[in-house]
Write a structure and sequence with these properties.
Length: 166
């Protein structure tokens, strides 16, 4: 399978991510390469569609990701993020999708993320998200935890520490 991976927001410019106890762009760039490596190990062809240019506007950043995925002719598009709401209010994992085919992936992946100890918020239809709407591939957006909730961040930090010990 041909899979496009988007590591979420840009480090600077008009498309920066959320902040809290952890910074979304930092977290995305920590777990995203693990997703890429895991998919490659399973035999998939993976293309990182995250912009390499700095200072892009939001529109430029989103269009870059979609255009690169479409040019790659991806079968599946995965956008890696972390969630934010209000400090220490919301918690857990969710996967956002736009189509019935994408919901199948969203449900499975959300279940796997919840198995890591996060509250399962479920799969959520998000038909207006640019990267889900304009990508030709089946598209999902991962929100494994809330970066502004201490309990979620602590679970992430413990998980990262156990990965480093292996």
């Amino acid at each position: 399978m041909r899979i496009a991976i988007d590591l979420g927001h840009d480090l600077n410019g008009g498309d920066t991510g959320a902040g809290g106890y952890l910074i979304e762009t930092t977290v995305n760039r920590q777990y995203g390469p693990l997703v890429i490596a895991g998919l490659q190990k399973l035999g998939h062809t993976v293309c990182n569609v995250t912009p390499t240019q700095s200072g892009l506007t939001l529109a430029q950043s989103l269009a870059y990701r979609v255009n690169k995925s479409n040019a790659f002719k991806a079968d599946l598009f995965i956008s890696c993020h972390v969630n934010a709401f209000k400090t220490n209010v919301a918690q857990g994992c969710e996967v956002e999708y736009i189509s019935a085919k994408a919901k199948v992936y969203a449900d499975r992946i959300c279940t796997q993320m919840a198995a890591l100890g996060y509250v399962k918020r479920g799969s959520i239809s998000r038909p207006n998200l640019y990267v889900l709407k304009y990508t030709n591939a089946i598209a999902i957006l991962l929100e494994p935890f809330f970066c502004d909730t201490k309990t979620d961040c602590n679970k992430y930090k413990i998980g990262r520490a156990s990965c480093r010990e292996r």
